[in-house]
Design a protein that fits this description.
The complex is a heterodimer of chains A (277) and B (296). Chain A is mostly helical and 277 residues long. Chain A has 2 domains: 3-56, no CATH class; 66-272, MetI-like (MetI-like fold). Helices cover 78% and strands 0% of the residues of chain A. In chain A, helix 1 crosses helix 13 (242-272), helix 5 packs across helix 7 (141-165) and helix 10 (195-211) runs antiparallel to helix 13 (242-272). Chain A starts with a helix and ends in a 5-residue tail after the last helix. In chain B, a hairpin with a 2-residue loop joins strand 1 and strand 2 (49-54). Chain B has a two-stranded antiparallel sheet with strand order 1-2. Chain B starts with a helix and ends with a helix. In chain B, helix 7 crosses helix 9 (201-229). Chain B is globular, with a radius of gyration of 24 Å. Chain B contains 12 helices and 2 strands, in the order αββααααααααααα. Chain B is mainly alpha-helical and 296 residues long. The relative contact order of chain B is 0.12. Classes of the chains: A mainly alpha (277), B mainly alpha (296). At the A-B interface, helix 1, helix 4, helix 5, helix 6 and helix 7 of A face helix 1, helix 3, helix 4, helix 5 and helix 7 of B. Chain B: Residues 73-287 form the ABC transmembrane type-1 domain. Chain B: Belongs to the binding-protein-dependent transport system permease family. Chain B: The chain crosses the membrane at residues 12-33, 77-99, 111-130, 158-183, 204-227, 266-288.
Chain lengths: 277, 296
């Protein structure tokens, strides 16, 4: 290939990739612009407009808006279910990969995780709802935290398994010969070495909990509603307040955007772990 | 190591697995068993007390003649097949393009990661505004290129296709990311050898890249397929199953039986049947692609 031909094809490749990037980014830019428009500017489809913070103020401070409470609910449920998932999955991944279980135990645990992953969450939501209602766990933080932890456990078990297997067996053996008990080995050897794995699994678990809709929809009411539930209901009931919806959408994307900026490495590692090996 | 150490090991082995096992048994196995039992019953609520009435297999018999259920299964299959195929093809070529450019790889990857991390319901909200007949940007673009603006979500000819477009936009980046990771992990020496032998770009792609990537292509495909069958958020927000039954998908049908119509027994039968259908389909897809892989 001649130099100009190579240069042309590089140019073409970048052109195609930039086009794809524009298509990916466009809806985000459009909704962000919409969030800063007045309702009238949005309805008139104005490209040039005087930006206003009115929509954000409305969503955050108006007495009819529950948004701050929804945001707090989502944070509490996301953080608590992530902590629970990390704790349970790290222990289980260690147990299954390092404690010489018979093969069938490991296969049935992981097999069950795969099967469970195939079930549409909405089918479990109904069963959870009828289980939780008699014991007062519906419309409570604890109920949704347990539900989200369960939904994310298969993925976490899978990912933490990959990371725990990467810990050299000699390190564990050496610690045992030095007389360390299992809890010490977990705390002093395993956890420090799988920290990147914990970060990757934790960030994804949090994001998935933050995004989860069908189960949150069925297990919460007004006081415990998460952000997706609030926006989903709002959008279904209101066919008028578009600019408010745009502002709420923009605010709801902030956690994922922040995590993407500060922890992209972990997110990529988490999403691709297992699929490549 | 003595007997005491072995006993202590067994103790810790059980203790470390117990929390995960407890969550699985209590929150997945038990509910699924209850769901299966429920599918043979009707539940009446009276004064805060529920009574189960046995209905035998009548829910399943009714299900066999339920047109809405059939339509929603077909819609879900159609949706999943078209959306996932589109995502895989686009994702694969985007990944190929990205590995072939030297500079800017990380920037492209960052941008493409964005949709994967966003809540489905927000994606739905954004696209609902963009699809709006009156002020949506889609119709502005359509008018700009000289076509007729349409009510994309309100017209039964376009509603399902419109949702498929959103899903492809949402999930192509996921396929891209996994394809990219797989491409980057391929051994360089095979490609160098092929280039020295004078193989063309397309020959290398067909004879080396694709076969080497097949395992990860399969994993990604099945993974996306499973997720696509569960589609709920976007449909809930964009069309609510309408107009008519044109975007009625299975998760949404089940949701309505349980939570708006309160027919839990029938909803349970629907859930169980759906689960069995999905399991059969996934096993069939895996078997089929494995066979193709071993014969080619």
């Amino acid at each position: 290939m001649s130099v100009t031909a190579t240069r042309q094809s590089t140019f073409l490749r970048h052109a195609l990739l930039i086009l794809a990037a524009i298509i990916v980014l466009f809806p985000f830019l459009w909704i962000t612009a919409a969030a800063f428009k007045t309702q009238i500017a949005l309805l008139m489809g104005r490209v040039l407009f005087a930006p206003t913070l009115h929509n954000f103020a409305d969503v955050l401070f108006s007495s009819t808006s529950d948004y701050v409470r929804n945001f707090t609910n989502s944070l509490i449920i996301g953080l608590a279910s992530t902590a629970l998932v990390l704790f349970v999955a790290t222990l289980a991944a260690f147990s299954l990969n390092r404690m010489k279980w018979p093969n069938w135990v490991m296969h049935s645990m992981l097999g069950w995780a795969v099967i469970f992953h195939m079930v549409p969450p909405i089918t479990l939501a109904s069963a959870w709802y009828s289980m939780f209602r008699p014991i007062g766990l519906d419309n409570s933080y604890l109920g949704l935290i347990l539900a989200h932890a369960t939904l994310n456990l298969p993925m976490a078990l899978w990912m933490m398994g990959v990371f725990v297997r990467d810990v050299p067996g000699e390190l564990i053996e050496a610690a045992r010969i030095a007389g360390a008990e299992i809890p010490t080995i977990l705390a002093r050897v395993i956890v420090p070495l799988v920290r990147p794995g914990l970060a990757a699994t934790g960030i994804l678990t949090f994001i998935f909990s933050w995004n989860e809709f069908p189960v949150s929809l069925t297990l919460t009411q007004r006081q415990t509603a998460t952000v997706p539930v609030a926006i989903g209901k709002y959008a279904q009931e209101n066919t008028i307040a578009f600019s408010g919806m745009a502002a709420a959408s923009v605010l709801s994307m902030l956690p994922a955007v922040i995590l993407l900026i500060i922890a992209q490495r972990f997110i990529v590692r988490g999403l691709t772990s297992g699929a490549v090996k | 190591m003595g007997r005491a150490a072995a006993a202590s090991d067994r103790f810790w082995r059980n203790v470390t697995l117990a929390p995960a096992l407890a969550l699985f048994v209590l929150l997945t196995a038990l509910p699924l068993i209850e769901l299966a039992l429920l599918s043979f019953h009707d539940v009446d609520w009276a004064g805060g007390v529920s009574t189960w009435r046995s209905t035998g297999i009548s829910h399943y018999v009714a299900l066999a003649g339920d047109n809405l259920f059939r339509v929603s299964i077909l819609n879900t299959l159609l949706f999943s097949a078209i959306a996932v195929t589109g995502e895989m093809v686009l994702g694969f070529f985007l990944a190929l393009l990205t590995t072939s450019v030297g500079r800017g790889r990380t920037i492209y990857r960052t941008v493409f990661l964005l949709p994967i991390l966003m809540p489905g319901i927000i994606i739905g909200a954004i696209w609902k505004l963009m699809y709006s007949f009156d002020f949506g940007v889609i119709n502005e673009i359509v008018t700009l290129v000289g076509l007729t603006p349409r009510d994309w979500l309100g017209d039964s000819h376009f509603a399902l296709a419109s949702i498929i477009v959103v899903d492809i936009w949402h999930w192509t980046p996921f396929c891209f990311l996994l394809m990219l990771a797989s491409l980057e992990s391929l051994p360089d020496d095979v490609f160098e050898a092929a280039e020295i032998d004078g193989a063309s770009y397309w020959q290398i792609l067909r004879a080396i890249t694709l076969p080497l990537m097949l395992p990860s292509i399969l994993v990604t495909f099945v993974f996306r397929l499973i997720l696509a069958f569960k589609v709920f958020d976007e449909v809930y927000l964009l069309t609510g199953g309408g107009p008519g039954t044109s975007t009625e998908v299975i998760s949404f049908t089940i949701y309505r039986r349980f939570f708006t119509e309160d027919r839990v027994g029938y909803g349970a039968a629907m859930s169980v049947t759906t689960f069995v259908l999905i399991a059969i389909l996934i096993v069939a897809v895996i078997a089929l692609t494995r066979r193709r892989a071993s014969t080619s």
